[in-house]
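Exercise 7. Given the encoded structure of a 96-residue chain, write a plausible sequence.
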């Protein structure tokens, strides 16, 4: 944790296999090398599994979302879970 004893009450982990994430990053960069290009696919998978392990250990705070799903589904899941976490009801604050 980066700010002393402050720990977020909710964290989203967007889980994407390394090769898919790397392909997306390259696409964003117009095909140019990305910072993670130097890592082997095995190293990227080890890092991914470590994050997933941390999420399993703190599953009440860290929510894993399948980052391979379409962006609309991912954003919908995040909005739904964040609203639930904050105790918001559908329609509150949107003029309904």
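Solution.
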């Amino acid at each position: 944790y980066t700010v002393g004893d402050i720990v977020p009450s909710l964290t989203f982990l967007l889980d994407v296999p390394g090769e898919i994430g790397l392909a997306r990053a390259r696409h964003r960069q117009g095909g140019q090398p990305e910072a993670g290009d130097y890592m082997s696919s095995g190293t990227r998978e080890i890092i991914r599994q470590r994050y997933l392990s941390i999420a399993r250990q703190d599953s009440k705070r860290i929510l894993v979302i399948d980052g391979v799903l379409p962006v609309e589904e991912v954003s919908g899941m995040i909005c739904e879970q964040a609203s639930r976490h904050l105790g918001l009801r559908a329609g509150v604050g949107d003029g309904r």
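Remark. The chain is about 45% helix and 10% strand. Students should compare their own answers with the one above.
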